[in-house]
Structure formats: structure tokens, C-alpha cells
Amino acid sequence: MDKKNSVDQAVEAVADLGRDIGDYIREQRSNAQISLRQLAKLAGVSNPYLSQIERGLRKPSAEILQQIAKGLRISAEALYVQAGILEQRVGGAVVDAVLADTELTERQKQVLLDVYETFRRENASKHSADATEE
């Protein structure tokens, strides 16, 4: 019985991952004001397949996620994190927002991320020094 329950839990966890990534893609598509049909065309996948991904019935491969990210103009890394393929890196939401901004050039994005990372390092050093003094 215990083995069957753990298998059921594992299957449900994988299904939840599919739903989570599907919900996230649908949300990003809605925010970008792109129809399912438009995103399917931009990503090079069929309408029914993309619909199944969004409904959590299919779990897309890393390659398909990359194509969808390109169609949505967001970082593939953001989708990989949502799909459980990658762990979220430090500063995830801010970094993802900068990378997803379509009004910034690649150079501008890199400068912003460099400044952000510098501030994070300074604050971490300051917190370490404060902790050492106590």
C-alpha cells in the first residue's frame, strides 16, 4: 500500500508541474496579449499541443519551452525554473523582469544586471561585517 501511495504522489507531483508551467505560460501569453494561435505559430508548435501544455495535459521538453519563451519574448530560464528544470537563481524575479523587458537593448539589460548584482554584493558584505561586529 505504501509503495502505491508514493507512486501516486509522484505521478500527482509531475502532473502539478505540468499544470504549473501551463498556467505560467497562459499567464505570460495573456500579459503579452497574444492569442493561443499566435503563440503556437511564433513557437512553431501546433495549436492543440500548446493548448494541452497550458491545460497541464502535456509537459513540454526544454526545447519546446525555449521556443515558447522566444515567442513570448521572455527568458527561457524563467520557463525552465517554472517547469522545475532549473533552480531559481539568486535575484530571480528582478533578473527575469529585466531580461523579459522588450524595450531594453541587450546592452542596457546587462548594465542593469551588473548594477543590481553590485548592490547585492555590497549589501551582503555590509550584513557580514555587521554580524561580525556583534
Write up this protein.
The protein has a domain at 2-87: 434 Repressor (Amino-terminal Domain) (Orthogonal Bundle). The protein has helices spanning 2-31, 36-43, 47-54, 62-72, 76-83, 92-100, 106-133. The model is unreliable at 13-17 (pLDDT under 50). Helix 2 crosses helix 4 and helix 4 (62-72) packs across helix 5 (76-83). With 134 residues, the chain is an all-alpha fold. The radius of gyration is 19 Å and the shape is elongated. The chain is built from seven helices and no strands.
Key structural traits:
mainly alpha; single chain; DNA-binding transcription factor activity; Cro/C1-type_HTH; TransReg_Diox_bact_type; 434 Repressor (Amino-terminal Domain); 7 helices; 134 residues; Helix-turn-helix protein
Question: Helices and strands, in N-to-C order?
Answer: HHHHHHH
What is the number of helices? 7
* Terminus-to-terminus distance: 53 Å
CATH fold title of the domain at 2-87? 434 Repressor (Amino-terminal Domain)
Please tell me how large the radius of gyration is: 19 Å
Strand content: under 5%
CATH architecture of the domain at 2-87: Orthogonal Bundle
Give the CATH H-level superfamily of the domain at 2-87.
lambda repressor-like DNA-binding domains
Mean pLDDT: 82
Give helix % range.
over 70%
Based on DSSP secondary structure assignment, what is the total number of beta strands? 0
Structural class: mainly alpha
Q: Give the CATH level 1 class of the domain at 2-87.
A: Mainly Alpha
Q: Which regions are unreliable across 5 or more consecutive residues at pLDDT < 50?
A: 13-17
C-alpha geometry? elongated
Describe the biggest sheet?
none
